[in-house]
Amino acid sequence: MDKTTIMNLMKEFFQSEFPIQGTELETTTDLLNDWFVDSLGVINTVLFLESRFSISIARADINPDNFQNIETLSDFVERSLG
Questions:
Q1: Would the pLDDT of 72 be above 70?
Q2: What's the rounded Cα separation, in Å, for the pair 15 and 9?
Q3: End-to-end Cα separation, the chain, in angstroms
Q4: Which helix H or strand E contains 63, and what residues bound it?
Q5: Does 67 map to a domain?
Q6: Which residue from 27, 36, 60, 74 has the highest number of Cβ atoms inside 10 Å of its Cβ?
Q7: CATH code of the domain covering residue 56
Q8: Does residue 42 contact residue 36 with C-beta atoms inside 8 Å?
Q9: Residue 32, in any domain of the structure
Q10: pTM of the model
Q11: Do 14 and 67 meet the contact criterion of CB atoms below 8 Å apart?
Q12: Is residue 19 part of a domain?
């Protein structure tokens, strides 16, 4: 699966699960500061990623470097897919 496909799937997920009226979600939107309402959003995202991409996410992987935006999260998924 290529990065563009991963990013598109994530963008669809974020827009449907965490809609924010009047705000455009870009691949560089800061997910932790500008998109998620609370930590439950991070947990739901982890569950989505594990389910949709058949990857395992360790606690140590849930950090600002990986979850900063859709681009960094897509890079993480690509690495996890091997």
A1: yes
A2: 10
A3: 10
A4: none
A5: yes
A6: 74
A7: 1.10.1200.10
A8: yes
A9: yes
A10: 0.90
A11: no
A12: no
